[in-house]
Amino acid sequence: MNCFSFKKTTILSVILLASASLASAQTDTAKSVKKTTIADSSSHAKLFGGAGQYNTWSIGVNAGITAPSVATGGVNPFNHNKGEIGYGISVKDQLSHAFGLQLDFHGGKLAGNNNGSYTTDDVSGAQYLAFSTKFYSGSLSGVINFGNISILHRKSTINFYISGGAGLDWYKPTPTGSDGNSVPYNSYIKELFIPIGTGVKFRLSPQMDFNLGYTENFVDGFNLTGVHAKYPSENSYSYGYAGLEYTFGPKSKQSLEWVNPVAQMYDELYDAELRKEVEVLKGRIANVEAVISDLKKDSDGDGVSDQFDKCPNTLAGTVVDGSGCPIIFPKRDTVVIGAAPKVAPYGNIQFEFDSSVLKTASYPVLDATAADLKANSSEVTLAGYASSEGTAAHNIRLSKDRANSVKTYLVNSGVDAKRLKVKGYGETHPIADNSTEDGRILNRRVEFHK
Fold first, then answer.
1. Could you tell me which residues come within 8 angstroms of residue 174 by beta carbon, excluding any fewer than 6 positions away?
2. Pfam families from the entry (predicted)?
3. Are residues 255 and 356 in the same domain?
4. Is 398 among the domain residues?
5. Helix (H, G, I), strand (E, B) or coil at 115
6. Whole-model pTM above 0.85?
7. Are 258 and 370 in a shared domain?
8. Per-position pLDDT tens, the chain of length 450
9. Quick check: 402 and 382 in contact, CB under 8 A?
10. Distance between the two ends of the chain, CA-based, in angstroms?
């Protein structure tokens, strides 16, 4: 069979398979329209139920035509491509509705010529009429589906995809010299390559798919044809193919690749068990609302719920406490307001341990002292003292700080600072026993000496 006949046979086969798949798609659509109930619960997967409820692994075989050029452009030492046979096998793990990882192995042949003219090698200067390259490749690619998520159809029978990855190419070029003799390379060349592809997938059955695809392969090297013309240039080749893909797993599980998440969400909203749960929740909410209504009921309007009102039926406007009972306030004429006790000035000002901060309790004495000092022109010595804890030098500083705190307060109250002298005596002149805490408290003081 020549190349032209092979191409016609391939195209005719593709048309027949595509027609069969489209007919199957119409049948499936008609069936889905007639369905009024959700599929059996044993085969109905749940959202967020994990990949275990789907079939995810598949294996595929394919065959097609190779060419030493790509549709997106580029250069080739030979201007006439000769279509050759390529083949492949793939294994895929579908990780989500839209993404899977696919391991591919391909083999085949590339060929081309210049229709009788020569191509000159830029490195050796030799002339060549044609080339033929046998290749094998292995690659790992990510495959992205963008046809299975739809708001228009519950089930799709056509899926579109793109792929991209990286791999290793083994190939052995055999250029044909100007004398008509073949000059094969001694061994296979191994080089990295990047496959970029796109395609369409037809669902033939729950476990069988028919694929049509096109892949451009970009080789990281310059030896694909065996001729270094138009050097340097990236060698590339393409592979157009048709193939079948079989998904492993029980028929009770769906293939993850063909699941429509939009339809799943719709089904779960109308799931009988879910609707029962919703009705139960509605009943519980109604009970809670009834309890809340009872808690809010206040028959006498005193602001206390009937359930907690210990004095029901109080008169409107009555002031009640938290239990709903009236509050009895004392009459005004029975309330005796006593006069504030008079504070004597010049009393000792006490301090906390190791502190020179004035205590709030000392303010009345200081206010009375300030008032008396403003009423006359006498001078006063502020004598600071400390208890016996700490060193003598520290206690001297602390006692002076205490006296200065008193002076600051009096000056801020309007007393002339020149009339106030400050002295720190430390732990000397105790007025109580420093061996007891009560005595030490009394010794932490400032005295007024006129």
1. 131, 132, 133, 134, 182, 183, 184, 185, 226
2. OmpA (PF00691)
3. no
4. yes
5. coil
6. no
7. no
8. 444 344 444 444 444 444 444 444 434 433 443 343 334 433 467 666 677 788 999 999 999 999 999 999 877 888 888 999 999 999 999 998 889 999 999 999 999 998 888 888 888 889 999 999 999 999 999 999 987 666 566 677 889 999 999 999 999 999 999 888 998 999 999 999 999 999 999 999 999 999 999 999 999 988 899 888 876 666 899 999 999 999 999 988 988 888 877 777 777 777 677 778 888 898 899 889 888 887 778 777 777 887 777 788 887 777 877 777 888 777 665 445 555 578 889 999 999 999 999 999 999 999 999 999 999 988 999 999 999 998 999 999 999 999 999 999 999 999 999 999 999 999 999 999 999 999 999 999 999 998
9. no
10. 133
Same-domain pairing of 254 and 396:
no
The pair of three-digit structure tokens given for residue 224, joined into one six-digit string: 């694909």
Could you list the beta-strand ranges (E) of 95-157: 99-113, 119-120, 127-145
Task: Tell me the CATH number at 90.
Answer: 2.40.160.20
Question: How would you list the strands of the sheet with 349-350, edge to edge?
Answer: 349-350, 445-449, 380-384, 420-424
Q: Please check whether residue 62 is in contact with residue 92, taking contact to mean a CB–CB distance below 8 angstroms.
A: no
Where residue 384 sits, what CATH number does that domain have?
3.30.1330.60
Of the residues 269, 303, 331, which one is the last residue of a structural domain?
A: 269
Is residue 333 situated within a structural domain?
Answer: no
Q: Are 302 and 326 in contact (CB under 8 A)?
A: no
Residues 6+ apart with CB under 8 A from 149: 97, 98, 260, 261, 262
Q: Give the 3-state secondary structure of residue 202.
A: strand
Give the count of domains, the chain.
2
Structural domain ending residue among the three candidates 269, 293, 325: 269
Long-range contacts made by residues 120-123, C-beta under 8 angstroms, separation at least 24?
A: 120/229, 121/227, 121/228, 121/229, 122/228, 122/229, 122/230, 122/231, 123/228, 123/231
Domain that holds residue 437: 349-449
Neighbour tally for 323: CB within 10 Å: 10
Rounded Cα distance between 153 and 159, Å, is: 12
Cross-strand partners of 84: 66
47 located within any domain:
no
Residue 329, SS3 per DSSP = coil
Residues 163 and 20 in one domain: yes
Q: Are residues 71 and 187 in the same domain?
A: yes
Question: Are 374 and 249 in a shared domain?
Answer: no
Give the C-alpha separation, 174 to 208, whole Å. 39
